[in-house]
Design goal:
Strand content: 15-25%
CATH superfamily of the domain at 1-12 and 51-99 and 120-128 and 141-193: Methylesterase CheB, C-terminal domain
Largest sheet: 7 strands, parallel
Oligomer: single chain
Shape: globular
CATH topology of the domain at 1-12 and 51-99 and 120-128 and 141-193: Rossmann fold
Distance between the termini: 4 Å
Order of helices and strands: EEEHEHEEEEHEHEHEH
CATH architecture of the domain at 1-12 and 51-99 and 120-128 and 141-193: 3-Layer(aba) Sandwich
Radius of gyration: 14 Å
């Protein structure tokens, strides 16, 4: 899994309002050979059963599943935070679920996922912030940047809701600000398995 002479081991994506379409568009662009694991925190109502795994499985060749506690993070897989749980990367490199209080009014919280992933993967992590209506993810993306990871933010003109990308751009000095249609292509370009 080499990417421009850097060995990236995971991608984390955070999205909120407008995120279903945004994540779907990225997944649809990924080549069938894209095998870096992806972990997704998509804000959803805590009061409804999530069907995100079924929704996204139709758009990608990745193995898609709702994350469970202690899932080994495997190549070629997409792990989705369950409704009303924080998704984290544990110190053992497996997924972890938490019912700790919401962060930025959100559970799952993008910051929680990004910060735990940055602690585990360090400079071998790619963080992506997409459309959304609050500032969740900005602090997490900043931590990824501080740990030497690669940071990507959806461009404001391509975001359905600009608040989250704007906050991330201001907080993290993102390495790349890309239109939605370019993010999947960018991942394919820099990452080969």
């Amino acid at each position: 899994m080499s990417c421009n002479n850097i060995h990236y081991r995971a991608v984390v994506i955070g999205a909120s309002a407008g995120g279903l379409a945004a994540v779907g568009a990225i997944l649809a662009e990924l080549k069938s050979t894209f095998c870096i694991p992806i972990l997704l925190a998509q804000h959803i109502s805590p009061h409804v059963e999530s069907h995100l795994a079924t929704h996204f499985a139709a758009k990608t060749a990745l193995a898609v599943k709702e994350a469970e506690d202690k899932d080994p993070i495997k190549r070629g897989s997409l792990y989705i935070a369950p409704s009303n749980y924080h998704l984290l990367v544990g110190f053992d490199g497996c997924t972890a679920l938490s019912i700790d209080p919401p962060v930025n009014y959100s559970r799952p919280s993008i910051d929680v996922l990004f910060e735990s992933a940055a602690d585990y993967f360090g400079n071998e992590l790619i963080g992506i912030i997409l459309s959304g209506a609050n500032s969740d993810g900005a602090a997490g993306l900043k931590k990824i940047k501080q740990r030497g990871g690669l940071t990507v933010v959806q461009s404001l003109d391509s975001a359905e809701v600009k608040t989250m990308p704007q906050a991330a751009i201001e907080a993290a000095n993102a390495d790349h600000i890309l239109s939605l249609k370019d993010i999947g292509h960018f991942l394919n370009t820099i990452c080969e398995c």
